[in-house]
Amino acid sequence: MNYLEFEKPLAEIEGKAEELRAMARSNEEMDVTAEAAGLDAKAATMLADLYGKLTRWQKCQVARHPERPHCRDYIEALFTEYTPLAGDRNFADDHAVMGGMARFNDRPVVVIGHEKGHDTQSRIERNFGMARPEGYRKAIRLMELADKFGLPVVTLVDTPGAYPGKGAEERGQSEAIARSTQACLTIGVPLVSVVIGEGGSGGAVAFATGNRLAMLEHSIYSVISPEGCASILWKDAEKMREAAEALRLTAQDLLELGVTDHVVPEPVGGAHRDRAASVTAVGAAIEAMLAELDGMDRAALIADRRRKYLDLGNKGLAA
């Protein structure tokens, strides 16, 4: 288990329980069942207590947990007959973005998402989920394909932001993000999005401007990272805790503000503690959001999406 900074007391208790079990395995005459069970109960209570009062900065840490399920995990578990489509037909294939045609609950769809990778090699290959312009142009191509064949689009968002490198800027990063956001707004098929980890800046908006948006309980979605915000406002990246509080970037904050439509519960301790349960919950959320849009024609879907984003910021003004 990869423990976060605020989980250190929990790590000690769970570590002691595992040590007892290891000793019992090496000595069959030793019975540590009662002691280990007591430590397990204490750890479970501490885990529930910790995750019942997470600060916004701690939620950022959970959203970034390296063992959290990523886009590939959700696609493999929830979608069948997945056929990946590669390249933007212009420059290259961006491995930070994966997508293609698939079936969701036996319904043909197009699925697109950011993939961070699961180990050092794959994280480098995937550029840690930071897409370049060709990644967004690949997404546009897939959305246009979905629109042509009348297929719903499902997007899975998990990125610290679009890649800010020189090459990406030279190839039109901002234009590619804007075009991808435009495609989200103009396609005449249902588009539902789930923030499964980080939703960073325009790199996330380019995939998440859909009819419905869901966020996992401990995911985040913001215009800038807390570290970036702190560097700009206070000239000190170490003030990221204060920045996280000011940004109001948690799923609960954004549900209150009307940015997200649904908050998907996570297992106690975060999605990485029970990956199967997290995947199942996300699948149920996608199914529910698609059901909300069933029966709506092209014009109604576009109007629904337009109204959703024009109304952002108006929540509570009437009162």
Topology of helices and strands:
Layout lengths: L7 H19 L6 H19 L4 H8 L7 H8 E6 L12 E8 L2 E8 L5 H6 L7 H17 L3 E7 L6 H5 L2 H14 L4 E10 H8 L3 E5 L3 E3 L3 H8 L6 H8 L3 H7 L4 E3 L10 H19 L4 H13 L9
Parallel strand pairs: 3-4, 4-5, 5-6, 5-7, 6-8
Antiparallel strand pairs: 1-2, 2-3
Helix pairs in contact: 1-2, 4-13, 6-8, 8-9, 10-11
Structure commentary:
The protein contains 14 helices and 8 strands. The chain is of the alpha/beta class and 319 residues long. Strands 1, 2, 3, 4, 5, 6, 7 and 8 form an 8-stranded mixed beta sheet that branches. α6 (133-149) packs parallel to α8 (173-186). The longest helix has 19 residues, at 8-26. The mean pLDDT is 91.
SS-based class: alpha/beta
The proportion of residues in beta strands is: 15-25%
Q: Name the average pLDDT.
A: 91
Bin the helical content.
40-55%
**Overall strand count:** 8
The total of helices stands at 14
Which consecutive residue ranges, at least 5 long each, have pLDDT under 50?
none
Question: How do the helices and strands follow one another from N- to C-terminus?
Answer: HHHHEEEHHEHHEHEEHHHEHH
Shape summary: globular
What is the CA-CA span between the terminal residues? 47 Å
Main β sheet profile = 8 strands, mixed
Radius of gyration over alpha carbons?
Answer: 21 Å
From the structure above, extract its key features.
319 residues; alpha/beta; 8 strands
